[in-house]
User: Which sequence fits this backbone?
């Protein structure tokens, strides 16, 4: 069972409540979920801290996502709880500040991860905020038992990088590359850029394809 697990929090220090900021009249986190709905999966889960549950529950429902509340700071444990609750075998990890995920690239890297039996897979050289991570559930549960540093537990996947897990981190195909492009929303400037880009893409039938997002970004 594959689950898209979207990690969301509301108390960002640089841009408070950014997940709830409007993007063409709907909360930014809803736009993230709309994008993720283009990626095949058995389950779609918004994983949030307990203190965000009531604010995010109706938004998750509107997008067709389950919602699961877990530890606030120990995000790795939150993911492990999701894995156990939904009996997942693989997760596609995404974060709530990335409304322009390349769904075609996400599908491709997850397919590669499954074919290779990789514990962890993610493209390099994508624009910042365009990618997801495909992670084997058993590997993440092992990390949950073994990882002890606050950094590893807050950031979920770094423990996998340095502890004898099977990694697949290929350079993205040329048409998805753009490591000088910033698509995440972490500051007010990012948000204003996202509003412009979403306005250009919203009526485009290819708005979730990486090459089209890059093209529109460069036209701003």
Assistant:
């Amino acid at each position: 069972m594959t689950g898209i697990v979207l990690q969301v929090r509301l108390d960002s220090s640089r841009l408070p409540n950014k997940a709830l900021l409007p993007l063409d009249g709907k909360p930014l986190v809803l736009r993230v979920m709309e994008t993720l709905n283009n990626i095949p999966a058995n389950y779609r889960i918004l994983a949030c801290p307990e203190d965000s549950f009531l604010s995010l529950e109706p938004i998750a429902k509107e997008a067709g996502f389950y919602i699961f509340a877990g530890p606030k700071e120990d995000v790795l444990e939150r993911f492990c709880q999701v894995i156990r609750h939904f009996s997942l075998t693989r997760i596609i990890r995404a974060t709530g500040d990335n409304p322009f995920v390349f769904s075609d690239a996400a599908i491709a890297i997850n397919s590669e991860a499954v074919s290779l039996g990789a514990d962890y897979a993610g493209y390099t050289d994508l624009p910042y905020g365009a990618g997801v991570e495909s992670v084997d559930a058993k590997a993440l549960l092992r990390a949950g038992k073994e990882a002890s540093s606050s950094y590893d537990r807050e950031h979920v996947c770094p423990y996998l990088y340095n502890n004898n897990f099977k990694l697949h981190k290929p350079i993205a195909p040329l048409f998805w590359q753009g490591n000088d492009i910033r698509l995440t929303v972490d500051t007010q400037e990012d948000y204003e850029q996202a509003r412009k880009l979403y306005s250009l893409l919203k009526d485009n039938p290819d708005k979730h394809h990486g090459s089209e997002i890059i093209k529109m970004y460069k036209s701003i």
Remarks:
- The chain has a mean pLDDT of 97.
- The radius of gyration is 16 Å.
- The CA atoms of residues 15 and 186 lie 6 Å apart.
